[in-house]
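hi! just following up on the protien thing from before. the input was this:
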Amino acid sequence: MSSEHSFDIVSEIDGQELANALDQTRRELAVRYDFRDVPTEIKQEAAQLVIITADEYKLKAVRDILDTKFLRRGLSLKILGQPNNEPATQGQIRSTIPLVSGVSAEYAKQINKLIRDNFPKSKTAIQGETIRVSSPNIDTLQDIMEMLRNSDLSLPLQFTNYR
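and the predicted 3d structure came back as:
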């Protein structure tokens, strides 16, 4: 048995759950009375969502439904970046929402510093978009996970490869 225990910190989007949440949102919009005869479209592009609808009020309603479906599917709302709203054709509004995934170098350094400040005996290693945290004590690793879950990072974090 190894004397070092470790886990990886990643930020990934479950593509299937995202597709399911978008599909459920489309279905709910199709049967809602207030969206009858209102052309509303939700598309997933490479790293963003595009919502096209009639006006700001309808856009807010779509976002509320989308947020609810995300939470029910176990997706963090932190994967949705800052929306960019702009006018579209025929008086409609287009909202482009970037999807946030991957731990950037900036966030990796911030997470690394947070762990080292609070748990000096643990070791961290930045490996691309993954951060490996290791410690001889399993309880320390669980405390690190709890600290990161409760932190105010604007990045959805998952903990994988726990050994």
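Strands lie at 5-10, 41-45, 48-53, 84-87, 93-98, 123-127, 130-135, 158-160.
The mean pLDDT is 90.
cheers
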